[in-house]
Description:
Blueprint: E1 3-8, H1 12-27, E2 31-32, E3 41-46, H2 51-65, H3 67-70, E4 75-80, H4 81-86, H5 89-93, E5 99-101, H6 109-121, E6 130-132, E7 154-158, E8 160-161, H7 172-176, E9 180-181, H8 184-196, E10 201-205, H9 225-234, E11 241-245, H10 254-262, E12 269-271, H11 279-284, H12 291-304, E13 309-316, H13 323-336, E14 340-345, H14 363-386, E15 392-400, E16 407-411, E17 416-419, E18 429-437, E19 441-448, E20 451-452
Parallel strand pairs: 1-2, 1-3, 3-4, 4-5, 5-6, 7-10, 10-11, 12-13, 13-14, 17-19
Antiparallel strand pairs: 8-9, 15-16, 15-18, 16-17, 18-19, 19-20
Helix pairs in contact: 10-12, 13-14
Bound molecules: S-adenosyl-L-homocysteine and FE3-S4 cluster.
FE3-S4 cluster binds at residues 163, 165, 167, 170, 172-173, 207-208, 248.
Amino acid sequence: MNRVFIKTYGCQMNERDSEQVASSLRDRGYSVVDNEFDADVVLLNTCSVRDQAEQKAIGKAGYLAKRKKTDPNFMIGVMGCMAQNRGSELLERLPDLDLVVGTQRFHAVPDHLDHLVQSYAAQGPRPSSIVDLDEEADSQNTIKDHLPKDNQVRAFVSIMQGCNMNCAFCIVPKTRGSERSRPMEHIVEEIEELAERGVKEVTLLGQIVTSYGRREFPVVGGKSPFVQLIEKVNDIAGIERIRFTSPHPRGFKQDLVEAYRDVPKLCEYVHLPLQAGCNKTLRAMNRPYTKERYREIVESLRAVAPDMYFSTDIIVGFPGETAADFEESAEFFEDIGFDMSYIFKYSIRSGTLAADMNDQVPTGEKERRNQVLLDILSKRSLWRNQQLVGKTEEVLVEGPAKKGDRFTGKTRGYRNALFDGDERLIGQLVQLKVDRATASSIYGDLVLAGVDID
Ligand code: SAH
Ligand code: F3S
């Protein structure tokens, strides 16, 4: 009864939390398997950002529950955001769940599973479900262990939890709680260990990384705690590239802009959520900046790093967004020139400010707006990738591509590169002469010591 499969929905923080749970289960003697059919326990790590994500996980749990009929000892757990958001109400809907664990209690999963395994082994009546949604003051410090993977080149490092903003559409402050930052020295130690294991690129993770440490650590020499942290990571031997996600436009100050000029390992790629390119909608969303301020940040970044790549999150069909508001937003979106974007159709989240707003936008209209932005985005990403044809780009080699026999890696601008490679190049920075580009990838040949290899 010790084979566990973890299925993850949602964002990179969820991926990171799942990794942490997997690692702690392994330490406890469980084996973490890579598919549900070989597992005695399936844990769903869930997302609540949109209704669709919740429905998917609920559907999956319902489907898994059928297996209990033939295999009564099979266990199912729900962890993370939906567990936190819906709590014990989930058990009413899915009475077969054995375990419901919230976002601050991931580290308690091995204890709970041990308990359940023992109860099942005793072969008495079905053990009662465990619901653990407690808040825990220092839960940000419980995320540390990584699952050792062979040849891991890139890693995600959680630097803080929670968010204190109150964006009208967003459920995250409810599911993830208030902002709590990990101490800088813990983060640095964790990254040093990753570097020793061969990791070359780290992405610093948080819901609002620009708020990192702002209550815990002082500003030093005009630099925010977040910029101080980036500089410390830059000093770690073995780490070649630094990224982070997500900053907030409100906290994106000049010290962070200058980091792109002064910190060599910080890559020229930023994911900066816009949400809307129309001031009226931004105000209604409770996003405390204007599109003019957003543009100013973009321009100041392009001034220090002309090749900067921009990625964003944008929502279509927020309540009250008229066709004209959307046009304005779409025009701004095109004008900035995003190289990547997550485009979301607004989804009502009960308990948020926007849930009770009038003038909800019909589904068909949201679809239309979604498509308009997708078209702008695919044109722009193709154009941007085509600019690289004929140029030589630095690529960090990750390994064989999922499909075909090529190798894959990323440029500093987070372009996906495909090329003929070799196992020995994994984890190395190589030069790629680009000869072809699509909206999603660039293709070419490696240039080794100035000589093209066939
Ligand atoms: N600050 C976090 C945001 C988490 S939610 C981060 O950037 O890491 C991720 C994205 O989901 C948000 O930026 C927003 O664009 C989108 N989103 C959040 N709530 C939504 C909702 N109710 N409907 C549609 N999209 C939503
Ligand atoms: Fe959500 Fe806004 Fe925070 S999008 S995570 S409340 S910055």
